[in-house]
From TrEMBL:
Residues 767-796 have a biased composition (Basic and acidic residues). SUPFAM superfamilies: Six-hairpin glycosidases, UDP-Glycosyltransferase/glycogen phosphorylase. It comes from Croceicoccus esteveae. Residues 763-796 are annotated as: Disordered. This is Glycosyltransferase family 4 protein. InterPro entries: 6-hairpin_glycosidase_sf, Glyco_trans_1, Glyco_trans_4-like_N.
Length: 796
């Protein structure tokens, strides 16, 4: 086993006195919970077998590493949960995009210390397996990437996918030195991130052929073996063509081909390949020297069958195969190997450990096998060299190396903000909800029933489920109806106003809610009309918006007007000729522009003489009104005022420092505390609107700064947001973070994530912080931008 870098690799050897090896107790080391993503039995493929072996051996030798598997499945697979429910945490349908996002959310909510991706291009959905990027971009824990194949000449798409995965990975594991060198030369992966750990192998005594031959009824035979899933890429026809020469020299030879035809080849071509090989053996007159074991056998039986062989043959024609589990097993069991020099064989069989031959060369196979069988001394010498080499790869050594790799990824993870596209979990959000709606407040993380509910938070909750792509459509629609019902119930058609506060006893605490809560109600109705996940919710939102919009004439708060204007933007996205929404934007734009002109001073470019909450919403509404209505004055006023308020919210150290709630009511002044998550959300979403109007990198940079505030880049170094369950603390006081996690804070963080992720996707390709495939059936900011531009053009 070798561990280290792409150059100057350091060899690590295991103590050969394995019976006395002391297994580490889970109480001696920190327990690490690892989420493994890849194929798993009963799927029949090499990676599934590898993953199963790894889980078993880590449990045996490093029980402090607990692996939960997220198994890839397709429509033909048996349910892995039914077979391995103790280790399967979830399944991911290869061709179901929602499953990848859902798995990322589940992993985040599980509190996994690291995510271990078993990568092969053929096991994930999408083009060249690019569906896995949706998962990798959303997980919060450090990513460990095991590459079972590193192509020397990848396609453009394959190269892009691997570059993206490598960019996200904290540690990269390969099983060959050649693979490590390719990562360095083709992708520029630094030495500090690459670890070479050769494929694990069993530890069994040497030289027990006769015992296992007798079990198979082969006591008097010389046994050649090839093992694995059958397909044209195995080169078996060359080994069969070599048999006539071998048999003529050694008539006691039997060649055993063990393994079922690859399931995907069966689905496409049936048993045509196997039948062609059987026909070839008949034509060459060696059918009696060929035994087919047409089964997918489990690991223990595989090892028993390998023990019965004298010479193991891998005649693969392709030279790019980085890993072969059966080759590792054969070497560790002390078998003489005759192989073509594909990547894994070239390294494992070097220095006389095995015999390397040219590909597609039956004569070379025959000559090498005959030479070994002619000289029992030479045969045993090769077998003993193989067995000695295999001591470096046995499972205890492999497990030690993996445990070291995991610990390095977990403890040495970069101390920086989580990736912008890492999707927050939703467990904290759901814990704040009941069948009525979302509670307002919490004591710590415990919902506070005494404070009841409010329209403001249930409106924000509806906004979240409209855009949360971590939810399936069915789940989101179910939640959306709950929050829509709250909004509907808050509406009083006789007074033509919304109520806001509702007690836990389901009694309204007021006849009419605040102007701001009424403005926010119009906002969520417009957003739902544009982004709801089914037509019925769209119809409901349009209908109630149109019924409620006349009340805007009575609203006096500039913020209420701004909120309603943002709702009008959503309403116009769905119906570009909606006259009431257009009139609302026109009235609101004129009002905000007048306020800005009246309150402006040389050092105060703001709409009011005081700063309140949700300040950037005023600028955002004016930007949207100017863009959609084609009013350049409004647009520029909105952009300039947003730049001003952004400048006020940056500390000398370059952190985002939102206007604190202690500031409210202070003339031409502001204080740093208490800092609220709502301000970060408003800053990010306003920056997104500004970027759509003026694609200046400044807007993304400032939005990112505001997002980092949730993760410790703030005046107190306090981490407020938890990607695991999606909760967020209620703010930062002068003494540090508020322990409570109320609805407003949770929703501000969740919505901030979706806003920053959407804005990130609008950046030029070479500047995207988390490059990802073109997205998404829902929530794609670019698509919404284009739709808005069409609507704006229609209105002009």
């Amino acid at each position: 086993m070798v561990q280290g870098s792409t150059s100057g690799v350091v060899a690590m050897f295991c103590d050969n006195n394995m019976p006395n090896r002391r297994v580490a107790s889970a109480t001696q080391k920190s327990v690490r919970q690892i989420a493994m993503v890849g194929t798993y039995p009963p799927r029949r493929c090499g990676i599934a077998t590898f993953a199963s072996d790894v889980v078993e051996k880590m449990q045996e030798f490093h029980p402090e590493v607990r692996i939960c598997v997220y198994a890839m499945v397709d429509e033909t697979d048996e349910d892995p949960v039914a077979h391995h429910g103790d280790v399967i945490a979830g399944t991911i349908g290869e061709q179901r995009p929602d499953d990848y996002r859902r798995a990322a959310r589940q992993i985040n909510e599980s509190g996994a210390d690291a995510v271990w991706i078993q990568h092969e291009y053929g096991i994930f959905g999408g083009e060249c397996g690019d569906a896995v990027l949706d998962l990798v971009d959303r997980v919060a824990a450090p990513v460990i990437l095991t590459l079972h194949t590193v192509l020397a000449e990848p396609s453009e798409r394959q190269s892009m996918i691997l570059a993206h995965l490598l960019d996200r990975a904290s540690r990269v594991m390969v099983m060959s030195r050649h693979g490590a060198n390719l990562l360095k030369s083709l992708y520029g992966v630094g030495e500090d991130r690459v670890t070479i750990i050769e494929h694990g192998a069993p530890d069994r005594p040497f030289g027990r052929q006769s015992v296992f031959k007798e079990k198979l009824g082969l006591a008097d035979r010389r046994v050649l073996t090839t093992f694995g899933l059958l397909g044209p890429g195995k080169g078996l026809e060359q080994a069969i063509r070599a048999l006539p020469r071998i048999v003529s020299r050694h008539p006691d030879v039997i060649y055993r081909i063990v393994g079922a035809t690859h399931p995907r080849l069966i689905a496409r071509d049936g048993e045509g390949y196997r039948m062609s090989l059987e026909k070839l053996a008949q034509e060459l007159g060696v059918a009696d020297h060929l035994v087919w074991d047409n089964r997918f056998v489990d690991t223990d039986e595989l090892l028993d069958q390998l023990e019965a062989c004298d010479i193991y043959i891998t005649p693969y024609p392709g030279m790019q195969q980085s890993t072969s589990g059966t080759l590792s097993y054969a070497v560790a069991l002390g078998k003489a190997v005759v192989s073509t020099p594909y990547l894994h064989a070239r390294e494992l069989l070097a220095d006389g450990v095995g015999v390397l031959i040219d590909p597609d060369n039956a004569d070379a196979i025959a000559t090498s096998v005959i030479d070994l069988l002619d000289s029992p001394q030479r045969l045993e010498a090769v077998q003993r060299r193989a067995y000695a080499r295999g001591r470096q790869t046995i499972w205890p050594c492999f497990a030690d190396a993996v445990a070291t790799l995991i610990e390095g990824a977990v403890t040495n993870a970069p101390r920086m903000v989580q990736p912008l596209l890492a999707t927050p979990g939703l467990a904290g959000f759901m814990a704040m909800c009941d069948d009525c709606g979302m509670y307002q407040h919490a004591v710590g993380t415990v919902p506070d029933r005494l404070r009841g509910y409010c329209l403001d938070d249930n409106a924000r909750a509806l906004m979240l489920v409209n855009v949360a792509d971590a939810m399936s459509d069915a789940e989101a629609i179910q939640w959306a109806h709950r929050f829509a019902a709250f909004v509907q119930h808050a509406w009083d058609p006789q007074l033509a106003r919304f109520r806001n506060f509702l007690g836990f006893d389901r009694q309204w605490c007021e006849a009419v809610g605040s102007d701001d809560s009424n403005g926010r109600a119009l906002w969520v109705l417009g957003q739902t009309a544009a982004q709801a996940r089914n037509g019925e919710l769209v119809w409901w939102a349009k209908t109630l918006f149109d019924e409620a919009v006349p009340m805007i004439e009575e609203l006096q708060s500039p913020r209420a007007v701004a909120f309603a204007m943002l709702g009008a933007v959503g309403r116009l996205e769905h119906e570009s000729d909606n006259a009431p929404a257009r009139a609302l934007l026109e009235r609101g734009g004129a009002l905000l522009c007048r306020l800005l002109a009246a309150a402006r001073r040389p050092d105060w470019a703001w709409f009011e003489a005081v700063l309140g909450y949700d300040n950037p919403r005023l600028s955002q509404a004016l930007i949207e009104a100017g863009r959609i209505c084609g009013n350049e004055e409004w647009l520029q006023a909105g952009l300039s005022s947003l730049r001003w308020i952004n400048a006020q919210q940056v500390s000398a150290k370059g952190f985002f420092r939102p206007v604190g709630s202690d500031t409210h009511g202070r003339l031409h002044d502001f204080l740093p505390f208490d800092q609220q998550p709502l301000e970060a959300q408003a800053t990010i979403e306003a920056a997104a609107s500004a970027y759509l109007a003026e694609p200046d990198p400044f807007w993304f940079d400032h939005a990112r700064m505001a997002y980092l505030w949730f993760f410790g880049q703030n005046d107190r170094g306090a981490v407020l947001a938890d990607l695991t369950d999606g909760r967020c603390r209620d703010g930062i006081t002068a003494r540090g973070p508020n322990r409570n996690c109320g609805a407003e804070s949770i929703l501000a963080f969740q919505l901030s994530h979706y806003a920053i992720a959407g804005l990130a996707r609008l950046q030029p390709g070479d500047k995207q912080p988390d490059r990802t495939q073109a997205d998404r059936k829902r929530g794609d900011v670019l698509a919404r931008h284009q739709k808005r531009e069409v609507a704006a053009e229609d209105l002009r």
